[in-house]
Amino acid sequence: MEKILIVEDDIAFGTMIQTWLRKKGFEVEKATSVKVAIQVCEEAERGFDLVLSDLRLPDHDGIFLLQWMRKHGVQVPFIVMTSYAEIQNVVLAMKSGATDYVAKPFHPEILLDKIKEAIKTPKKQDSNATSADSQRSTDTNSTPTDAAPGKQAGNQASSANGDVPKYLEGESEASRKLYSFVSLVAPTPMSVLILGASGTGKEYVARRIHELSTRANKPFFALDCGAIPKEVAASEFFGHVKGSFTGADQDKKGAFEIANGGTLFLDEMGNLNYEVQVQLLRALQERKIRPVGSNKEIDIDIRLVCATNENLAQRVAEGNFREDLYHRINEFTIYMPELKDRGADLFLFADLFIKHANKELNRNVEGLDGKAKERIAAYNWPGNLRELNNVMKRATLLATERYIGVTELEQSMAHIQPQAPTALHDEETELQRIEAALKAAGGNKSKAAQLLAVDRKTLYNKMKKYGI
Ligand SMILES: Nc1ncnc2c1ncn2[C@@H]1O[C@H](COP(=O)(O)OP(=O)(O)OP(=O)(O)O)[C@@H](O)[C@H]1O
């Protein structure tokens, strides 16, 4: 009897397919998260003949599972299930070696046809496995550069933490909205302006746009414009030839040339002075650059992604930023949500950062205890992901027990002004946070209340208020 593994976090839906497939003569097991699916695969005595997986799962996406399987030599057919709204992700899944996909809602007979077809043509998976390897850059382990001026990112993924992903996208409404815009604009040639407060993760988003674009196999180059002195700006952008100015003792390629064919990410864009803005605009309009001291022009073809935490529109209004350049770099705007608006993602990120810190500091901390969760939920994280990461790292180092308590958390937050607990912030965020916590807790209200750092009664009252 052929054996199928269903990976689906919607328990009712998963059970419905399981029952139906059993009636059709398959042996069927279920998992509700990537973590559980990996465990089931590792423990299964005879393995599976096919995996049917949702794309959006509570801990990782289905592509992560697919890549894990291929990496561990599990070459069985893999069918992804997705909603029409997320159909763009199917391209990514297929590139990563998925056998086929079904868009929800689907007719069970269609699914059955796809399963039969996939099981009887195993050859296809071998070639896809290779494709999964070559496409690993699309997984969430991909590493953005530290955007120090002129640091080049290769196109390969890297996971410094074994199976712990380096990056997370989050499950909150704000995160879903963010990444739906990312997937929408990525395959187009449009220039993108990413706006958001410091530490919200703008560089990771820039990197994802590149990875999901048709330029994914070409270079991605990040340049921190905020760190470039005015005198060397032209050379950083366009390069120079040896002897063109004091200190130019060899030829140097500029950011445009390094990123040629791929994506140029200009971070802290709002800091560029007027003169550099003019040079940049000319390069973008003419699609040519001339290195400092050279009389040769070089054709360039780059996708531009810019980021800033300044109010650029206001700078334009004040006459400090050229309007024509603003329109050129801003064909599509992405607004980064602040951490306080990402609902229960706060706990997912905290957990991830603790895992990274464990690895880096050789510790074995399991997470935050209830009171510590309460404390992080009551704080509004003006420094966003960067601040959370720093606090979690310090707290992991200071922890003396299996769980980080409020004492070491407070010590790690010593630089932070105490705040009155705001419990769940404003109404919209509150609703999102409740929904996300319920999802993360698999519908278990006690667990969700714990995640939200409120008591069960408060959670029930809030659920009633919002009609959940
Ligand atoms: N998606 C993510 N998953 C996990 N960690 C993240 C993610 N995005 C960002 N981080 C963490 O937050 C830190 C800050 O991210 P990043 O530098 O991209 O922010 P930024 O918005 O560009 O900030 P700034 O405006 O100050 O340059 C990163 O070093 C990383 O540790």
TrEMBL record:
<keyword id="KW-0547">Nucleotide-binding</keyword>
<feature type="modified residue" description="4-aspartylphosphate">
    <location>
        <position position="54"/>
    </location>
</feature>
<keyword id="KW-0597">Phosphoprotein</keyword>
<dbReference type="Pfam" id="PF00158">
    <property type="entry name" value="Sigma54_activat"/>
</dbReference>
<keyword id="KW-0804">Transcription</keyword>
<dbReference type="Pfam" id="PF25601">
    <property type="entry name" value="AAA_lid_14"/>
</dbReference>
<feature type="domain" description="Sigma-54 factor interaction">
    <location>
        <begin position="168"/>
        <end position="397"/>
    </location>
</feature>
<feature type="domain" description="Response regulatory">
    <location>
        <begin position="3"/>
        <end position="119"/>
    </location>
</feature>
<dbReference type="InterPro" id="IPR001789">
    <property type="entry name" value="Sig_transdc_resp-reg_receiver"/>
</dbReference>
<protein>
    <submittedName>
        <fullName>Sigma-54 dependent transcriptional regulator</fullName>
    </submittedName>
</protein>
<dbReference type="InterPro" id="IPR002197">
    <property type="entry name" value="HTH_Fis"/>
</dbReference>
<feature type="region of interest" description="Disordered">
    <location>
        <begin position="122"/>
        <end position="166"/>
    </location>
</feature>
<dbReference type="InterPro" id="IPR025944">
    <property type="entry name" value="Sigma_54_int_dom_CS"/>
</dbReference>
<dbReference type="InterPro" id="IPR003593">
    <property type="entry name" value="AAA+_ATPase"/>
</dbReference>
<keyword id="KW-0805">Transcription regulation</keyword>
<keyword id="KW-0238">DNA-binding</keyword>
<dbReference type="InterPro" id="IPR025943">
    <property type="entry name" value="Sigma_54_int_dom_ATP-bd_2"/>
</dbReference>
<keyword id="KW-0067">ATP-binding</keyword>
<dbReference type="Pfam" id="PF02954">
    <property type="entry name" value="HTH_8"/>
</dbReference>
<dbReference type="InterPro" id="IPR058031">
    <property type="entry name" value="AAA_lid_NorR"/>
</dbReference>
<dbReference type="InterPro" id="IPR009057">
    <property type="entry name" value="Homeodomain-like_sf"/>
</dbReference>
<dbReference type="Pfam" id="PF00072">
    <property type="entry name" value="Response_reg"/>
</dbReference>
<dbReference type="InterPro" id="IPR011006">
    <property type="entry name" value="CheY-like_superfamily"/>
</dbReference>
<dbReference type="InterPro" id="IPR002078">
    <property type="entry name" value="Sigma_54_int"/>
</dbReference>
<feature type="compositionally biased region" description="Polar residues">
    <location>
        <begin position="127"/>
        <end position="145"/>
    </location>
</feature>
<dbReference type="InterPro" id="IPR027417">
    <property type="entry name" value="P-loop_NTPase"/>
</dbReference>
